[in-house]
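Hi Y.,

Following your request, here is the sequence exactly as I used it, all 144 residues.
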Amino acid sequence: MVEVPDALNTLFSAQVESDGDRYVVEIPKREVSHGALAPGETYRVGLLSQVDGETATSTPEPARETDSVSTSSGVPQPPVDEGEVREVTIESLGDQGDGIAKVERGYVVIVPDGQPGDSPTVEIETVQENVAFASVVDTDGQRA
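Below is the corresponding structure, written out as tokens. Let me know if you'd prefer a different format.
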């Protein structure tokens, strides 16, 4: 089993392509446009092999209807649904000052006014391919 560190910036699927005397893994443009990665920076990269069409992870996640649905490229769908209510933990702040929480597979949930260490219950309002936007519905468990 592979252990995935908490410092994981992003997680995406890509093919290893041959390019003359080297191999290339292309970074999807959305990873840069959403701030997960920055051009010119150096990153530590880990590659996980595909097992039966699913990416190997350190701990199996509970099966969800959306986990088994893939796009035509074989990329898993977001692990959250619009209208879903769940508890998250704010890990950091984004460039705009919003809280950033990560859920299954490193998927990012943006929570307005969240502070690192807060654990609010949120409702997922908008779901995109690699990020969701949520609103706080219950602040129990948030730090004072």
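The radius of gyration is 16 Å.

Thanks again,
Q.
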